[in-house]
Amino acid sequence: MTRGPKPKENAVRRNKHEHAQALSGSATEGRALPPGLGIKTAGAKRFWRTWATSPQAGKWIETDWAELEITTKLVDTFYQGDTKVAGEIRQRVAKWGATVEDRARLRMSIEDDAQGQDQADGTAAADPTTDLDEELYRLLSE
Asked: From the CB of residue 118, how many other CB atoms can be counted at a distance below 10 Å?
């Protein structure tokens, strides 16, 4: 048994935020990883590919791409064994909406696009850098 009056059938939310943004669920084409960054680990390459093709990247300007380059260097350092940079990485990706909670705080929603999900799954399976067993073995054996 619920309290209060029964909600209207077609209730309209009236407190929509003026800066809220709805992004398409399909992956964007993104940018290629700049060879000048000198990224060595497969984990950092996967990190770049994930963010460069994310729905958020479709709205990015040059400063956002520069932040992705810096963060990818930090992720490369992390995968090389320097775990002290983990907190910095988490703070940076939160500003892009990495988790559901981050996107809620940013008033960002991603529209469900079944076709985009199928394409994203197909590209991840075809890429050989997704297999990180060798890298994980190397990190654990040090």
From this structure: 10
Q: How far apart are CA 90 and CA 94, in angstroms?
A: 6
| Inter-residue contact 94 to 8 (CB < 8 Å) | no
DSSP state, 22?
E
**Quick check: 47 and 72 in contact, CB under 8 A?**
yes
Residues 74, 88 contacting (CB under 8 angstroms): yes
* CA separation for the pair 76, 117 (Å, rounded): 27
Distance CA 132, CA 110 (A): 28
**What tens digit of pLDDT does each residue of 94-128 get?**
998 888 887 788 777 777 765 444 444 554 444 55
Domain ranges in the chain are 39-116+131-141
Cβ 39 vs Cβ 52: under 8 Å:
no
CA 115, 116, 121: angle at the middle one, nearest 5? 100
* Cβ(48)–Cβ(55) below 8 Å: no
For residue 140, the tally of other CB atoms under 10 A from its CB is: 7
